[in-house]
Amino acid sequence: MMRAPADCCDGSDEASGKCRNSCLDRSAHERQATRDRVAFVHAALEQKKALIAKANAQQQAWKSRKGLVGHETSAQAKEVTKLEGEGQGLCVPACVVVGAPPVNRRGQAGHG
Q1: Residue 71: CB atoms within 10 Å
Q2: Which residue has the higher pLDDT, 21 or 110?
Q3: pLDDT at 1 over 50
Q4: Are 104 and 110 spatial neighbours (Cβ–Cβ below 8 Å)?
Q5: pTM score, two decimals?
Q6: Separation between Cα atoms, residue 35 and residue 26, nearest integer Å
Q7: pLDDT of 73 strictly over 70
Q8: Distance between CA 15 and CA 3 in Å, rounded?
Q9: Higher pLDDT, 18 or 52
């Protein structure tokens, strides 16, 4: 809101010519301050709009990546299931079994 400074003189209550109208001159800095504030708010709103657009693009990229990762995980799970099925008849050495003692060259349990 623009208002004239209280100490300005518009000459309305003075004898003619005694006081020139100085209100416009004195309020010029207030008008400029208002223009500066409007320009600042306008620039801030433009930055906000750009940040929102960037955030929306990033969110879309994350959603796309999430779908891709989900697809990759599903494909890898199928591959694991397939490999597990193929490996059902395989013999696993005792030393590979978790918790089993190591086996020496003669096939006997020992210290390594």
Answers
A1: 10
A2: 21
A3: no
A4: yes
A5: 0.46
A6: 16
A7: yes
A8: 24
A9: 52
Query: Collapsing DSSP states into helix, strand and coil, what is residue 83?
Result: helix
110 close to 102: Cβ distance less than 8 angstroms: yes
Residues 6+ apart with CB under 8 A from 111: 102
Please give the Cα distance from 89 to 83 (Å, whole number). 11
Residue 68, token pair as written in the block: 């891709």
9: CB partners within 8 A, 6+ apart: 19, 20, 21, 22, 23
Question: Which one-letter amino acid corresponds to residue 87?
Answer: G
Measuring CA to CA, which residue among 46, 6, 55, 5 is closest to residue 28? Answer: 5
Which H or E run includes 86? helix 23-86
Contact predicate 27/5, CB 8 Å: yes
